[in-house]
């Protein structure tokens, strides 16, 4: 199942209360910083759900 980031809910990097914790937690490199924003590389995601469980803004979900 694909993971998506709701850009309206995401604090991006500069406004994230945990400074991009989703990027730090992703051991597969599926979530990256790109121009100060958070991007997903779907083919790297192994559906571990760590990013979903730890996003303080609840901006990450599965589709």
What is this entry, summarized?
The chain has 63 residues and is α+β, with helices and mostly antiparallel strands.
Basic shape: globular
> For the report, how would you describe the main beta sheet?
2 strands, antiparallel
Order of strands, widest sheet: 1-4
What is the CATH level 1 assignment?
Alpha Beta
Overall description:
There is one protein chain. The chain is built from 2 helices and 4 strands. The chain has a two-stranded antiparallel ribbon with strand order 1-4. Strands 2-3 form a two-stranded antiparallel sheet. The mean pLDDT is 93. With 63 residues, it is α+β, with helices and mostly antiparallel strands. Helix content is 16%, strand content 22%. It is globular. It has a single domain (3-62), classed as Alpha-Beta Plaits, CATH 3.30.70.20.
Short descriptors:
4Fe4S_Fe-S-bd, 63 residues, 2 helices, alpha+beta, Alpha-Beta Plaits, 4 strands, two-stranded antiparallel ribbon, single chain
Topology, please?
Layout: E1 3-5, H1 21-25, E2 31-34, E3 37-40, H2 50-54, E4 60-62
